[in-house]
Design brief:
Elements lengths: L5 H23 L3 H6 L11 H15 L8 H24 L5 H21 L7 H23 L22
Keywords: Membrane, Transmembrane, Transmembrane helix
Pfam families: DUF6512
InterPro entries: DUF6512
Length: 173
């Protein structure tokens, strides 16, 4: 088994902690800028921010000065894991009615670790210009959707605030 570079492991720990800290940023400094970066409520969609922004920041730092297309695997991993995060959160919170913080934290750390590992699995994705451009466009679209839905969330279950006890029982299907 190949040993992970110390730089990558350090980036994983710092990125994971940064995302965890982002969870509380809007509560401490409520304004439009922090609203774009941090969850403004306990909806599944808003919690994408604690994964998406720190992960992309880590990707930019880890790949700076790299060859053309080296960021595409990171962006693809971010997109895929955002989808997995939404699906897993929906299944756990909405379908199963789960409310345990330990499960949420475990899922978050697991997905962050998967992102750092998947970037290596997708290493050849950035070699083709067309694929690289599509991944970049999808990543920018995701960032735009996060920004737009921060201020104009649709009336959908993914955007419903799940804070409180037994809120899942009152969520309209």
């Amino acid at each position: 088994m190949r040993k992970l570079p110390k730089k990558l492991l350090t980036a994983f720990v710092v990125t994971t902690l940064a995302g965890a800290c982002l969870h509380f940023l809007y509560v401490l400094l409520p304004n439009p800028v922090t609203a774009l970066l941090a969850p403004v409520n306990e909806s599944l969609w808003e919690h994408l921010k604690i994964f998406f922004w720190p992960y992309l920041a880590a990707a930019l730092l880890l790949t700076r000065g790299g060859e053309r297309g080296c960021r595409a695997p990171w962006m693809l991993s971010a997109l895929l894991l955002c989808v997995v995060m939404l699906c897993a959160g929906y299944f756990y919170h909405i379908v199963l009615g789960g409310e345990r913080l330990a499960v949420d934290l475990g899922l978050y750390v697991l997905l962050m670790a998967a992102g750092f590992l998947l970037s290596g699995v997708f290493c050849h994705v950035g070699e083709r210009t067309g694929v690289r451009d599509i991944i970049l466009l999808l990543t920018v679209t995701m960032a735009g959707a996060i920004a737009i839905f921060t201020f104009l969330p649709p009336d959908h279950i993914l955007f419903t605030d799940l804070s409180g006890v037994n809120t899942w029982a009152t969520i309209p299907y």
